[in-house]
Design a protein that fits this description.
about 300 residues; alpha/beta; six-stranded mixed beta sheet; two-stranded antiparallel sheet; 8 helices; 10 strands
Length: about 300
Amino acid sequence: MDATELLRKVRHIEIKTRMLSDNVFAGQYHSAYKGRGMSFDEVREYQAGDDMRDIDWNVTARFGHPFTKLYNEERELTVLLLVDVSSSLTCGAHAGSAGDIVAEIGATLAFSADLNNDKIGVVFFSDRIEKYISPQKGRKHILYIIRELIELTPEGRTTDLGNALEFVINTQKKRCALFILSDFISCGDFETPLNIAARKHDIAAIEVYDRFMKQLPDVGLIKMIDSETGEDVIVDSSSLRIRKAHATHWLKHEERLKRVFGDCGVDYASLTTEDNYVDELSKLFKNRSRSVGHRR
């Protein structure tokens, strides 16, 4: 891609995703990803609906009726995108590959974080760590992230999500909001490092895939990627047996993802390249807002 084409694509994604962040996601993101830290501010008399756990028992004993503690929220949050750039995301049967959609979602999240005055960083991974952009703020930084989302060419072809999560565990010493953007195809054994990371960080997994990964069309010979080797293979999609086997394999794959994310307490959204990712992100933010409110 030449410099002019790259600039055009960066500008196109900036305009589209900034508008989405400004007009659609700003309030939803803020509600879903408020700063986790709280600092003590003052006390006031207890009111109906206040959390019993916030009662200041020393002040209550002194005045003879209940007082509750008030806190100021520590606003700044670090947001980290964990972006899969393996070969499977660059294949697509429709207008945009999963990689194109991942780039737009990543840019939207970056602008949403910026509107919330949060730092944003990215880890690009395949079967290795391809690139790490440390969390920072500012439009120049976000445009750099968008450029890399579009332009980065990975050295690896397969996927090792466990290795990427271990990198996050080792580099992110403070709590952060972690978004995993991937098709989660053949991403190895990642449940243990995911469970460790989820104990410290707020994690959301966003699955993006071409719909033909779920159900093969009957169109004859198709070039696909071997999940074990990362090599191209030719599959005869006209075979009913092969199509059924593929559908069964995908169903087991999806069931595993739901189980693993559910067991680790990770928020999870799944969409195809034909779905409206705006709707899916909205659902993710709204569900998280409700769960955060419930936990508090």
